[in-house]
């Protein structure tokens, strides 16, 4: 701590007297983090919207980003790290957070725990309302809040002590303690104290030509370094798909969306604190932009990329049978246009990191979902040999897809190479929301037909998706949507076409589902309409048409086992009957508030679509008996560190507790692939299983024992037991390899898929996961407001590696789906903060009942399937169907804001 400052202000920080000399107006959050080293105080918005920076000032919770540091003079300031170390109450609360699975990514955990400590000091046994009131100012994007509430209320632990911790055991996260103690280091927590600071100049216009003034004179006058496209040593382009690498690190001559980077300024922290973007020598000439798909496709519209006629990025297509003929012979047809909006990822941690040059190599530390993909991009942007680049992931405070794309990484690397010094950056909240990827808005025309018995006989889907100025993951969305738009149902005659269209909007990329949640909105809404027209129960209609083992998908792919959608739907039958009866009784009372019950199904293919998708996991045994697992699958809160450890430990035959884990450092850990497409449990899990089995085989051979032997790591030994026989392997005299291992394994797994032909027929995914959600909600027909009452979510995960983590993913995914359905709409230039852009708070989430279904997959590790993205897919459709059940109104544009719903209700009353 900087306690030697003579002038300034003094206060007590976590029991110690400190003195600082803050600038006029300096935020307390900045003073705590940058002057006093309290990096456990997180900054997510600098506007008091997210609550991540909450500390206690004289015992009261305060957003440290809103409090001038000078106002702390003479006060007692407490942070999570200090509370956890000094106060038994905080330590016990941290243990409760671990036992409930209440900390996922961990970025909001300090704010949550500090707020909870203040409550528990005054109210040792709070009720749920008191907990929600106390924590209402802190946002979480991962958990869905339920487990946080359980932890603060001291409810029975969900995690279970288990000697081995193998698959099926609901153990606490293996990386949980740093999250609850304040020790977890995120992207903005790791830079050296003397690192230079970077600020990025971004376009204020959706499309504009620009010209720089004298950059050298500006740099000299301000004592800074300026970077532009001229300073990119290699290719001034990045992207995630080789044929679509089209986004510049710095724009050249023309900016194509509001927030696009055109230059950067690097200087000492004190100088950059006074940085005024208005003084930067750049002139803007706004140009005619096209921010809607219609404008971008209009005759004469300017092309964002000259080689892409009509601003068409690419398309995806699936044809199975004759959809048009089937629709003509259908007894009933339901059709309509459905529209969804841009959705912001809104992770609480903005993009952050630092870079430095060490012995001629550039090292980049950043929050990321894909360290090896970052390395791939940097190799090209820097024009450097791969061996001269190192990427070290920090803890990542949420990602949900957007942190698959590089953001700060190339900027930092270029700056470190040019200055020769460590350089750091943390995006401001508005900067993050302007410049990073979004969920694709969809404009979808859907028609589905059924015969008189209720069997689906044909479907046609046409979707246009706003992919923004650059490609990002747009090609993946365009190709994945036609495969999934049928939902997990038997449809023999099917035609689906999806196109990504460039506009002057932020790039649309990966966001939990890659376009499938948008497509499900239309398909599942029309299923309700068909069932109603035919007089068939809506749940039974889905069960009747559900895919089964041995039945081809719309791509002609046949699964002999593991098709679990019918089991998911059938699991909802008891709740479906009970909740509909309750809704009928509620509505019989009359009044403006009406209750509805909705249901929807969903599926999601795990991994890349018909492309190689390998993961590699390495492990080794040291002379002292330590077993080291090199786990490169980025854990962004979903639990990869824990799940991969459980699978590996089971395959090796040792307790999870004996493993020493190494993270995704590209110098020491092989590529476990990107954390996306719900692939880590399936793909990296299989690599971990193979690596564990290979290492076990080596150990058993050394002892000449059979597969039934147990392995016990000891001090410098491995002790094996089989029956009455005991064999000790002495490790001290064994030869070490270059990494210090006397035994090692390194295994890879790549899912078996087949390319799609010109009609989209093939085997795009080795496995699908399945889900069905029931939503109960109430609509105030006078106000147009919607209040979710309850969700019941059935998920087929094949084999629940960790049931506690399954519940956490389900609850968190439903929260995001609720936001997509009812409140979240990103509008460039208007909703670029967490005050105007609304995400669900602790008061918005209803109870969630999770039903875990286990239909083992033929390829998954111990039968397991992916889960993360699946949860979001049925959530919004189940909400729309419940709104229709309550009011008779079919909403076809998301989000369903009160104004839109009220207008639709009035139109219905007027007969429009």
Rg is 28 Å
Mean pLDDT: 97
Low-confidence stretches: 1-6
Structural class: alpha+beta
Helical amount: 25-40%
Give the biggest beta sheet.
7 strands, mixed
Query: Within the largest sheet, what's the order of strands?
Result: 8-10-6-18-15-16-17
Q: How many DSSP E strands?
A: 33
> What is the distance, rounded to the nearest whole angstrom, between the alpha carbons of the first and last residues?
68 Å
Number of helices: 24
Strand content: 15-25%
User: What overall form do the CA principal axes indicate?
Assistant: globular
Layout of helices and strands:
Layout: E1 9-13, E2 16-20, H1 28-35, E3 54-57, E4 60-63, E5 76-78, H2 80-86, H3 88-100, H4 109-122, H5 128-135, H6 146-153, H7 176-181, E6 196-202, E7 208-212, H8 215-222, E8 225-227, E9 254-255, E10 261-267, H9 269-273, E11 282-286, H10 293-297, E12 312-320, H11 323-329, E13 332-339, E14 343-344, E15 352-358, E16 361-366, H12 371-382, E17 389-393, H13 408-419, E18 423-426, H14 429-435, E19 438-439, E20 442-450, E21 456-468, H15 474-484, E22 494-502, H16 516-534, H17 538-545, H18 565-571, H19 573-588, E23 593-605, E24 615-621, E25 627-630, H20 640-652, E26 659-662, H21 680-703, E27 710-713, E28 717-722, E29 725-730, E30 743-749, E31 768-780, E32 785-796, H22 803-822, E33 848-853, H23 872-887, H24 898-909
Parallel strand pairs: 1-5, 6-18, 16-17, 21-22, 25-26, 32-33
Antiparallel strand pairs: 1-2, 3-4, 3-5, 6-10, 7-9, 7-11, 8-10, 12-22, 13-20, 14-19, 15-16, 15-18, 20-21, 23-31, 24-25, 24-30, 27-28, 28-29, 31-32
Helix pairs in contact: 2-3, 3-4, 3-6, 4-5, 12-13, 16-23, 20-21, 22-23
């Amino acid at each position: 701590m900087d306690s030697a400052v003579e002038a300034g202000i003094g206060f007590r920080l976590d029991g110690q007297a400190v003195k600082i000399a803050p600038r006029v107006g300096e935020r307390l959050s900045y003073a705590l983090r940058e002057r006093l080293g309290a990096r456990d105080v997180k900054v997510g918005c600098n506007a008091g919207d997210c609550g991540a920076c909450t500390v206690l000032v004289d015992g009261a919770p305060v957003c440290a980003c809103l409090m001038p540091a000078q106002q702390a003079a003479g006060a007692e300031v407490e942070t999570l790290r200090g509370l956890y170390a000094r106060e038994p109450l905080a330590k016990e609360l941290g243990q409760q957070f671990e036992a409930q699975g209440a900390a996922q990514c961990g970025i909001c955990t300090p704010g949550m725990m500090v707020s909870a400590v203040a409550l528990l000091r005054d109210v040792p046994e709070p009720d749920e309302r008191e907990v929600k009131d106390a924590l209402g100012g802190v946002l979480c994007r991962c958990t869905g809040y339920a487990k946080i509430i359980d932890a603060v209320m001291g409810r029975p632990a969900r995690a279970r002590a288990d000697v081995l911790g193998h698959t099926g055991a609901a153990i606490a996260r293996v990386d949980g303690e740093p999250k609850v103690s304040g020790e977890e280091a995120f992207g903005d927590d790791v830079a050296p104290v003397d690192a230079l600071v970077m600020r990025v100049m971004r376009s204020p216009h959706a499309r504009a030509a620009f010209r720089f003034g004298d950059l050298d004179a500006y740099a000299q006058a301000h004592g800074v370094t300026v970077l532009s496209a001229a300073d990119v040593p290699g290719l001034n382009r990045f992207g995630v798909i080789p044929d679509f690498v089209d986004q510049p690190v710095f724009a050249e001559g023309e900016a194509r969306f509001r927030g696009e980077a055109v230059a950067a300024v690097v200087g000492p922290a004190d100088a950059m604190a006074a940085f005024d973007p208005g003084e930067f020598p750049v002139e803007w000439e706004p140009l005619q932009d096209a921010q809607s798909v219609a404008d971008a496709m209009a005759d004469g519209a300017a092309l964002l990329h000259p080689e892409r006629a009509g601003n068409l990025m690419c398309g995806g297509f699936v044809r199975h049978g004759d959809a048009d003929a089937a629709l003509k012979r259908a007894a009933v047809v339901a059709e309509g246009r459905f529209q969804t909006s841009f959705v912001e990822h809104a992770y609480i941690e903005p993009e952050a990191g630092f870079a430095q040059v060490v012995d001629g190599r550039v090292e980049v530390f950043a929050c990321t979902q894909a360290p090896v993909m970052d390395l791939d991009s940097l190799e090209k942007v820097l024009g450097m040999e791969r061996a001269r680049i190192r990427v070290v992931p920090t803890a990542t405070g949420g990602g949900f897809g957007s942190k698959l794309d590089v953001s700060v990484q190339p900027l930092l690397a270029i700056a470190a190479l040019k200055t020769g010094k460590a350089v750091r950056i943390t995006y401001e909240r508005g900067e993050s929301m302007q410049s990073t990827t979004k969920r694709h808005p969809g404009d979808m025309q859907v028609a589905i037909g059924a015969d008189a018995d209720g069997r689906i006989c044909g479907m046609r889907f046409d979707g246009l998706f706003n992919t923004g100025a650059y490609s990002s993951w747009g090609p993946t969305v365009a190709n994945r949507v036609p495969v999934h738009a049928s939902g997990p149902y038997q449809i023999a005659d099917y035609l689906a076409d999806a196109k990504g269209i460039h506009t002057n909007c932020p790039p649309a990329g990966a966001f939990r589902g890659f376009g499938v949640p948008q497509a499900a909105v239309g398909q599942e809404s029309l299923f309700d309409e068909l069932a109603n027209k035919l007089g068939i129960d809506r749940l039974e209609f889905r069960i009747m048409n559900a895919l089964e083992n041995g039945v081809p998908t719309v791509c002609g792919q046949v699964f002999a086992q593991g098709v679990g959608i019918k089991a998911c739907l059938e699991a909802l039958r008891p709740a479906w009957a009970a909740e509909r009866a309750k809704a009928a009784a509620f509505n019989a009372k009359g009044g403006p508030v009406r209750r509805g019950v909705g249901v929807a199904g969903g599926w999601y293919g795990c991994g890349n679509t018909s492309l190689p998708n390998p993961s590699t996991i390495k492990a080794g045994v040291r002379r002292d008996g330590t077993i080291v697992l090199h786990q490169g699958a980025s854990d962004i809160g979903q639990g990869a560190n824990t799940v991969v450890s459980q699978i590996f430990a089971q395959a090796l035959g040792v307790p999870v507790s004996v493993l020493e884990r190494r993270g995704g450092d590209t110098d020491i850990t092989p590529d476990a692939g990107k954390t996306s497409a719900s692939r880590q449990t399936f793909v990296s899990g299989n690599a971990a299983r193979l690596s564990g089995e290979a290492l076990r085989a080596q150990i058993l051979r050394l002892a000449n024992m059979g597969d039934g032997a147990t392995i016990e790591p000891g001090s410098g030994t491995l002790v094996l037991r089989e029956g009455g026989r005991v064999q000790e392997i002495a490790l001290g005299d064994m030869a070490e390899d270059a990494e210090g291992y006397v035994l090692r394994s390194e295994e890879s797994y790549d899912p078996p898929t087949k390319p799609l032909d010109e009609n989209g027929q093939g085997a795009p995914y080795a496995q699908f996961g399945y889900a069905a959600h029931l939503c109960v909600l109430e609509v105030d027909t006078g106000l147009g407001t919607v209040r979710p009452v309850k969700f019941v979510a059935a998920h087929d995960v094949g084999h629940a590696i960790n049931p506690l983590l399954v519940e956490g993913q389900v609850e968190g995914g439903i929260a995001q789906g609720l936001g997509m359905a009812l409140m979240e709409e990103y509008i460039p230039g208007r909703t670029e903060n967490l005050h105007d852009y609304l995400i669900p708070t602790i008061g918005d989430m209803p109870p969630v009942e999770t039903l875990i279904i286990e239909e083992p997959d033929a390829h998954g590790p111990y039968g397991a399937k992916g889960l993360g993205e699946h949860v979001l897919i049925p959530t919004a459709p189940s909400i729309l169907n419940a709104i229709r059940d309550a009011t008779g109104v079919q909403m076809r544009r998301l989000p369903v804001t009160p104004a839109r719903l009220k207008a639709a209700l009035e139109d219905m009353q007027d007969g429009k």
